[in-house]
Amino acid sequence: DADVTQTPRNRITKTGKRIMLECSQTKGHDRMYWYRQDPGLGLRLIYYSFDVKDINKGEISDGYSVSRQAQAKFSLSLESAIPNQTALYFCATSDPWDATYNEQFFGPGTRLTVL
Amino acid sequence: GQQLNQSPQSMFIQEGEDVSMNCTSSSIFNTWLWYKQDPGEGPVLLIALYKAGELTSNGRLTAQFGITRKDSFLNISASIPSDVGIYFCAGPRSTNAGGTSYGKLTFGQGTILTVHP
Prior knowledge:
The structure holds two protein chains of two kinds.
Chain A: E1 4-7, E2 10-13, E3 19-25, E4 31-38, E5 42-49, E6 56-57, E7 65-70, E8 73-78, E9 87-94, E10 105-106, E11 110-114
Chain B: E1 4-7, E2 10-14, E3 19-25, E4 32-37, E5 43-49, E6 55-58, E7 61-65, E8 71-76, E9 85-94, E10 100-107, E11 111-116
Parallel strand pairs in B: 2-11
Antiparallel strand pairs in B: 1-3, 3-8, 4-5, 4-9, 6-7, 7-8, 9-10, 9-11
C-alpha cells in the first residue's frame, strides 16, 4: 500500500466550482505539504503544516485554502476554481526528527483541469 | 526569493550514453537534494548532499555539492530506458534571519530526460 495517497487522481471541473483535493498518509509524519507542478516551473509550495494545529502559507497560496483534519490528513481546497489553476498537484510529508535530511515523500499527484 | 536554475531543460539521448545536468543558485545552500519523477508519479529522492565538495554515488548516479555551495551536478552513467523522467534539484529554504528553514524546500524547474532505445 502507498504511504501517501491522494484523491482524486484526476479531476475536470468548471470555472467557479469549489474543489477539494485530499491527501492521506500512513507514514506517521507530522509535516505535510501541498505543491503544484506546472511545465517548466518545477514544484511550487502552496501551503504547509508542521502539525495538526499549524497552517502556513507557501509561495503561491492565493486562491487556495487548506485543512489539517488529523495528523494523517491534509486537504487542499480551491474555493472558486479558475483555468490558471489547471496543474498537477502533489501532497508530500516529512519527518521532523529527520531535520538534517530534508527528505520529503510525495503522493502520486492529482491532475486538475479547470475549464 | 531563492531560485534554483536547472540546465538543460530537456535532454534526448541514446541508451548507453552518459548524462550530465546541473543546478545553480544565487544563494548559498547547505544541503542539495536530487529527486526523480517517473511519468505519472510523484518525485522520489535519489541523492542528498550535505557538505561543500561532497561527491556521492547511488548506483549509476553520481552527484556533487559544488565548492561554492551555489551549485550541484548530477551525472548518470550508461543510461537505460527507465532513466526517463524529470530530475529536480532542491534545497532547504533560508529563513529571513539567514538560517536554514529545514522542512521547506525550494525546487528547480526540472530537467526532462528522454532515453531512446
